[in-house]
Design brief:
Blueprint lengths: L2 H9 L10 H33 L15 H11 L10 H18 L6 E6 L2 E5 L7 H22 L3 H32 L4 H6 L6 H4 L1 H14 L11 H4 L9 H26 L21 H22 L5 H32 L3 H31 L23 H16 L2
Antiparallel strand pairs: 1-2
């Protein structure tokens, strides 16, 4: 069976995405925009409450019932604050940067299917703003374009710390978007399409996270790195960069960067649901219910899966410490990308051999044995390297005495010793 035949077979599962009246498209755009904004407000509240519970605190509980309106109050406060613009900034780029990040984040959700076909104003339409034959590539392009806002914002601020945050963000995108794209290719091979609705249609019998567990894990790690969230929040590491790329931003411009970050969290979580968890299709035991995979009820299944992954974002932030930058780069380039390449070759070979109808013995001979050798070599090589480093001769160790280290009083210590040292220094210099 060729790729064209596979695509034709899957296209029968989901009806073709036809033209809708302009008012139906407008209603869907408004609904998606309001959903994303309200999700951001809810996520701000939920993150503060969940992390507070993890740290045995209460979290916001004053503004509204259970503190639910705290996010709205913070948004109004940011919008009404004085918009301070430093004198050294490149003003056109400085103003444009948060707009780029926000528009790109909001645009990416347009191709996510969040429900089945329903009747709206007398017309049958998909619960999706639009679809494209290359919808996944559109999402990747929008996420890459959004990083321009972070990079330009850090560069245009005219300060060192925002510039470092912008450079870190560019390095993260280059590193982790490669692994993310490679994890998608295996899904394309099994679904026969790059269209999001077709990928959901291809999962009518089984979800892809069962079939492609390695791709699921790689994408799960990459999506955290793409959204600059803990433990990968290096572009805005307040412990070392004050606030990162948005240090010099205030008022509504800072709020737009904040909005873009949380919208990106929602988009990558929705893409995880679409690519690996059946999209809007119901999960067991609701899948046994006749009619659970049609109509408006499908929005409920999509939202339940979506908020599960959004909770995982909060869980990670409240649990894991921030990684060092070299550890972050090491994970991306030396583990995720090579693993994704090897897994992609395995998936392509298994897919081809299964289409040709080869036996399991042939699969093990052609795929299993070479894969075992590669995995063994990967597992042994770091251990041998560590052994070589441990056996390094003493004369190869760099002499640290040549570094300009200040003299330390290791005997007496305390404030008295500090005063003695200062006095002695003053006497020597003749002050």
């Amino acid at each position: 069976m060729t790729g064209a035949m596979l695509l034709a077979a899957h296209s029968q599962e989901v009806p073709s995405f036809g033209p809708d009246p302009w008012y139906v498209v407008l209603v869907k755009c408004i609904v998606v925009f309001l959903f994303l904004v309200l999700t951001v407000l809810f996520m701000i509240w939920a993150e503060r409450r969940v992390v507070a519970r993890m740290q045995q605190r209460l979290g916001p509980n004053r503004v509204g019932p259970f503190g639910l309106v705290q996010g709205l109050a913070d948004g109004i406060k940011l919008a009404l604050k004085e918009d301070l613009i430093p004198a050294m900034v490149d003003k056109p780029v400085y103003v444009l940067a948060p707009i780029i990040s926000t528009v790109a984040a909001l645009s990416a959700f347009a191709v996510i299917p969040f429900g089945a076909t329903v009747s709206m104003f007398g017309h049958h339409t998909h619960l999706q703003v639009t679809d494209l034959p290359v919808a996944i590539l559109f999402i990747l392009a929008a996420s890459s374009f959004g990083v321009y806002g972070i990079v330009l914002g850090g560069w245009a601020s005219g300060s060192v710390y925002p510039l470092l945050g912008g450079l870190r963000s560019a390095a993260q995108v280059i590193s982790y978007e490669v692994a993310m794209g490679l994890s998608f290719v295996a899904v394309f091979l099994y679904s026969g399409s790059l269209s999001t609705s077709q990928i959901v249609g291809a999962q009518h019998s089984r979800w892809f996270f069962w079939v492609l567990p390695v791709s699921f894990i790689i994408y799960g790690i990459s999506m955290v790195g793409e959204t600059n969230r803990a433990p990968f929040d290096l572009p805005e590491a307040e412990g070392e960069l004050v606030g990162g790329f948005h240090t010099e931003y205030s008022s509504l411009k800072f709020a737009m960067f904040f909005l873009a970050e949380y919208v990106n969290m929602t988009t990558v979580s929705a893409l995880m649901v679409t690519m690996f968890f059946g999209g809007w299709r119901p999960f067991w035991p609701f899948s046994l219910w006749d009619g659970a995979d049609s109509g408006w009820i499908t929005i409920l299944w999509f939202l339940m899966k979506l908020f599960t992954f959004l909770f995982i974002f909060i869980w990670l932030r409240g649990t894991l410490p921030r990684m060092r930058y070299d550890q972050f780069m090491h994970l991306g380039w030396k583990w995720l990308i090579p693993t994704a390449l090897v897994w992609l070759m395995v998936v392509a070979a298994v897919r081809q051999y299964s289409i040709e109808g080869l036996s399991r013995t042939s699969l093990m001979a052609y795929i299993g044995i070479p894969l075992a050798i590669v995995l063994l070599a990967v597992a042994v090589w770091p251990a041998r390297r560590d052994i070589r480093e441990l056996r390094q001769p003493d004369d190869l160790v760099e002499d640290q005495s040549s570094f300009p280290v200040p003299d330390l009083d290791l005997v007496s210590g305390g404030r008295a010793a500090g005063r003695d040292t200062v006095t002695t220094t003053a006497e020597v210099t003749g002050a």
